[in-house]
Structure to design on (210 residues):
């Protein structure tokens, strides 16, 4: 190739390269993403939010304390012990109950004269007791003056009936305010009796009778 042709060839190649460079748009570099941002199209991560505190359980209101009635004045009570003679201990069963009945001294016989009644399990003897107007058959009945007190160790748990073999003890003319009454269960009913307002039943066996 001649010198002229060679020169023309190099000039053509240079023009071609320059045109190629001018025809291609310059590609801008992608802007740098701030650190911590997700890739395009991905939702941003949720910000760490503190969990709400657990709902406090409702505290029920404290129950109101029950009113405890004041202890009765000893001068308006009769208290003492009920004793069980050794000869009758084998007659007591765990299901037996003890009835304590106070009647107005000199009042009419029968249930109409009852002032106060208590019922206790036949547990250990001697059995302590205290009678007051708290034990009144009719609320508001005054417990005062002199009273007769009968105690019965009952087999059927019914205060109206008295069964043959029930143990009974009784003291009469006790002044309200007395604190040392002793009532021995030293009598045994000889027959069944149902209280109905008539005269007090008779037929009790003498103390110590089997």
């Amino acid at each position: 190739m001649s010198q002229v042709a060679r020169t023309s060839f190099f000039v053509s190649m240079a023009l071609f390269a320059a045109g190629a460079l001018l025809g291609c748009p310059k590609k801008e570099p992608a802007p740098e993403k701030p650190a911590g941002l997700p890739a395009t199209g991905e939702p941003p991560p949720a910000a760490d939010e503190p969990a709400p505190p657990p709902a406090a359980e409702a505290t029920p209101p404290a129950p109101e304390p029950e009113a405890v009635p004041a202890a009765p004045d000893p001068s308006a009570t009769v208290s003492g012990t009920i004793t069980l003679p050794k000869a009758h201990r084998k007659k007591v069963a765990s299901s037996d109950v003890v009835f304590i009945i106070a009647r107005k001294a000199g009042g009419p016989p029968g249930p109409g004269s009852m002032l106060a009644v208590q019922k206790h399990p036949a547990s250990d003897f001697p059995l302590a007791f205290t009678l007051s107007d708290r034990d009144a058959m009719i609320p508001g009945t005054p417990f005062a003056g002199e009273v007769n007190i009968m105690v019965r160790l009952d087999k059927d748990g019914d205060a109206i009936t008295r069964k043959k073999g029930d143990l009974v003890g009784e003291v009469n003319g006790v002044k309200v305010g007395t604190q040392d009454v002793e009532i021995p269960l030293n009598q045994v009913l000889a027959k069944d009796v149902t209280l109905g307002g008539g005269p007090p039943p008779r037929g009790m066996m003498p103390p110590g009778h089997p």
About this structure: The two ends are 162 Å apart (CA to CA). The first strand starts at residue 78 and ends at 83. Residues 75-205 form one domain. The chain is about 10% helix and 30% strand.
